[in-house]
Amino acid sequence: MVENAEVTQTPSPSNEPSTSANHPLPSTAHAAHPQGHESIFVRPSDLLRPKAASRTTVPTTPPDRPIDRDQRAGLKAIRDFLRIRNCYDVLPLSFRLIELDVGLTVKESLNILVQCGIVSAPLWDSSTSTYAGLLTVNDYLNVVRYYNLHADKLKDVDKLLLSDLKDVEKVLDVKPPETVSASPEAILYDALRQQLVSRARRIPLVSYDSDTQRTMVTSVITQYRILKFIAMNVKETEVLRKPLAMIKLGTYGNIVRCTMDTTVLDVVDEMVLKNISSVPVVTTEGILLNVFEAVDVIGILKTGDYGNLTWTVGKVLSARSPNHPGIYCCSLEDGLDTIFETIKRSRVHRLMIVDDNNYLKGILSLSDILHYLLVEGQEETNPT
Ligand code: AMP
């Protein structure tokens, strides 16, 4: 079987006599063993066999190098750490919790978020005294899309309540985000694995009070806070030296980009449809200039003027606060070791992967990193 397969794959030398119709003899063998010397005749299969053998001996897995072993050891250390911590451990010693009643208007909620410098908050339904989900930037993106489609309703925008957001989702036919909450006592590793499935970017910590039989929100943990917690406590992050190019971490194909002239409405549409939280702003040559973030929409809406959504991305970026931290970049040669160092020092939400000329090559989001830390290498082996 192998011989036949090989013969058909080997190009037949043209104009050469052959020993049989099915087994053309390679010209070199034919020249070395002219017809008449049957005893030393080399059959095509003899020549072809070593090729077949060399093909089958090509190693299927690359050799295990120190850098591979270190990477595995680093991942194991992180997973072991996450398995002995609970969600509560991620919270700082002192923190504040801002919860919004679903009876507030969307406009009021925007003012509160802006005044408190936050971009999401758990919702509270005081009529039932229960936790009512998480308000995130995505809700505001939906509101933007809703009024773009129903400009006639814009006159009532100030009356829109947080409890109406579910109806907005229905009209837009968008699936409400899965609210995957976790108990503060839940094992961090388990809570994160659950979060991966839902693709949620935050985990509300919700506890149940058996006395009152009510749920209560303790806090909300973000992807950044989890990664910073790892960066500060697991020294083995230093051995995650494999470059992004090698571990193929991040998104490189079909990157949604925009230019300074794209309108905010167009960018918002893409962000909602593709479920992404940012869009890099590039020149026509693909050089990275900036990043439009979903949270930029809060800054636009805070004035209450929905007409601002026809602004271009360039105009929105130039209206950003001077305190905006800027964007974070890395290269394909960077490993998670250096990225964790950056996370330790700065509130990073994503990194743009660029080459030496600032040409955009890819995007590395915090969800990509978390996915890698939890899942990499687990398909082939038992979870360790
Ligand atoms: P994020 O929006 O940061 O939660 O990222 C969710 C997923 O989408 C990750 O796998 C990112 O690498 C990817 N991603 C983020 N932004 C973009 C974009 N502009 N175009 C394509 N993929 C993206």
What's a concise summary of this model?
This protein folds into two domains: 80-233, CBS-domain, CATH 3.10.580.10; 235-381, CBS-domain (Roll). 39% of the residues lie in helices and 14% in strands.
In words, what does this structure look like?
- This protein has 384 residues and is of the alpha/beta class.
- It contains 16 helices and 10 strands.
- The strands form 4 sheets. A 3-stranded mixed beta sheet has the order 1-2-3.
- The model is unreliable at 1-54 and 380-384 (pLDDT under 50).
- The structure holds adenosine monophosphate.
- The site of adenosine monophosphate has 14 residues, from strand 6, strand 10 and helix 16.
- Adenosine monophosphate binds at residues 201, 250-251, 255-256, 276-279, 350, 363, 365, 367-368.
Helix content: 25-40%
Category by helix and strand content: alpha/beta
CATH topology of the largest domain: CBS-domain
C-alpha Rg (nearest Å): 29 Å
Strand order of the largest sheet: 1-2-3
Instruction: Please tell me the overall pLDDT.
Output: 83
Give the low-pLDDT segments: 1-54, 380-384
CATH hierarchy: architecture of the largest domain = Roll
Biggest sheet details: 3 strands, mixed
Strand content: 5-15%
- Spatial gap, N to C terminus: 41 Å
- Ligand set: adenosine monophosphate
Number of structural domains? 2
* Name of the level-1 CATH class of the largest domain: Alpha Beta
What is the CATH superfamily label of the largest domain? CBS-domain
Helix-strand pattern: HHHHHEHEEHHHEEHHHEEHHEHEEH
Shape call: globular
Extended strand count: 10
Total of DSSP H or I helical runs spanning 4+ residues: 16
